From TrEMBL:
Keyword field contains Transferase: no
A Pfam family per the record: AmpE
Alphabetical list of PANTHER family matching this protein: PROTEIN AMPE
Keywords: Membrane, Transmembrane, Transmembrane helix
Name of the molecule in the record: Regulatory signaling modulator protein AmpE
Residues passing through the membrane, by range: 49-68, 150-173, 274-294
Source organism of this protein record: Marinobacter aromaticivorans
């Protein structure tokens, strides 16, 4: 049933994303409000955040285990679907990316920037940025958001169950939304550790779902190292797996200057298609694991 549960949750979540509905991050923000006050000198302490993430993870795990123990295992599946729907999703992205692509096509880079500025990290929200820098910042953020809110959740759900998926997704939320900013780098480091295997698996998937020869040249050396950040590895892998310089705006503008106006929309479309194909590969792999009786 693990395959069926994930498929249902994934399809529901994609539909909700298209409607810009049910933002899971809003629930995390409200839950983390309990950590808005910290003692002087302990702003970087992470224990309260870990407790606030561990509590829902343990409760969900115990609920599923309890239902199965008392012979109501079938009732656990709707609960897992609901939790997965809340954990996954990138609502708001489609409503920003489409106007961004239209503004890029018009050549109005200032309007394009304003459409996507809220999605970027605070360090990259400066108003002065070249179109190339702006687009690469957007693509990097999009790749990381989809990875953390779909692929990372899917990996740990299959490996460790719904409780572990909640815990890992909670770490991502802590790194982005914990009220004490001084503690966020420590949560981010934890996210890097739990992402180490999944991001490398996704990198390989990019090669399978995209241009394998290009991926072998660009990303294969990178996945063997341990120092590459999650976002860097995603960008390197996607760049190698995509053709026609979809993630190399500077080179594209030199080789295809007449098509520069359509670059923004075409590049984002290529990235979305790569992510969709990669998720299809993961679903097929999960189906094979289920058939083999491994999961």
């Amino acid at each position: 049933m693990i395959l069926v549960v994930f498929l249902i949750a994934y399809m529901v979540r994609r539909r909700l994303d298209s409607l810009d509905a049910l933002e899971g991050d809003a629930l995390w923000r409200r839950w983390f409000h309990q950590g808005s006050v910290a003692e002087a000198g302990r702003e970087s302490d992470i224990r309260n955040g870990l407790v606030l993430v561990a509590v829902p993870a343990v409760l969900v795990h115990l609920s599923v285990y309890g239902l199965a123990f008392y012979g109501w295992g079938i009732a656990a599946y709707p609960l897992e679907i609901l939790v997965l729907v809340l954990l996954m999703g990138t609502p708001g992205w489609r409503q920003s990316v489409e106007p961004y692509a239209e503004a890029w096509h018009r050549g109005d880079m200032q309007a394009a920037w304003h459409h996507i500025q809220k999605h970027l990290p605070a360090s990259e929200r400066g108003a002065a940025a070249s179109p190339e820098t702006m687009h690469l910042a957007l693509t990097r953020t999009l790749l990381l958001a989809v990875f953390q809110r779909f692929f990372l959740v899917a990996f740990w759900y299959v490996v460790g169950g719904i409780g572990l998926a909640v815990l890992v997704r909670g770490l991502v939320a802590l790194s982005e939304q914990w009220p004490q900013a001084a503690a966020r780098p420590r949560f981010l480091k934890a996210c890097e550790w739990v992402s180490w295997i999944p991001v490398r698996l996704l990198s390989v998937t990019f090669g399978i779902a995209g241009d394998l020869s290009g991926w072998l040249g660009e990303a294969r050396p990178a996945i063997a190292g341990i120092r590459k950040s999650t976002s860097d590895l995603l960008m390197i892998s996607a760049n190698g797996s995509l053709t026609r310089y979809a993630l190399d705006p500077a080179r594209f503008s030199r080789i295809h200057p007449d098509e520069w106006a359509s670059f923004g929309g075409r590049s984002l479309s290529a990235v979305r298609d790569l992510l969709n194909r990669s998720m299809l590969v993961w679903i097929c792999l999960l189906a094979l694991l289920v058939i083999a009786g491994i999961v």
